[in-house]
Design goal:
By secondary structure, this protein is mostly helical. It has five helices and two strands, in the order αααβαβα. It has one domain.
């Protein structure tokens, strides 16, 4: 089942209302990351998932489609510091994001 209003949310998040020029005046680092991007994103979007990389790639392709290139970062199970046994188990993961 599709998420209601997902397309509207994604379009809002990456709407080019903030140009690369405006971004460079506010944050030079932000301008560099947006300069090569088709979208001058309104927000810096990062995705975190406890799923394995192949599952995350499928989820991103289905959910974000063309907007994937707007993502600043994507974290998956490989960045959780799990042992090989923990990595292969289906266990719940929680992470504090500051």
């Amino acid at each position: 089942m599709a998420r209601p209003y997902l397309n509207s949310l994604l379009a809002y998040l990456v709407h080019p209302s903030v140009s690369a020029t405006q971004t460079s005046q506010e944050s030079p680092a932000g301008a560099e990351s947006n300069a090569n991007n088709e979208y001058a994103a309104r927000y810096e979007i990062m995705i975190w998932s406890s799923a394995q990389p192949h599952s995350v790639k499928r989820m991103l392709a289905k959910t974000f489609g063309e907007y994937q290139k707007s993502l600043l970062a994507v974290w998956d199970r490989t960045q959780l510091g799990l042992s090989p046994v923990e990595y292969s188990q289906c266990i719940s993961q929680a992470r504090l994001v500051n």
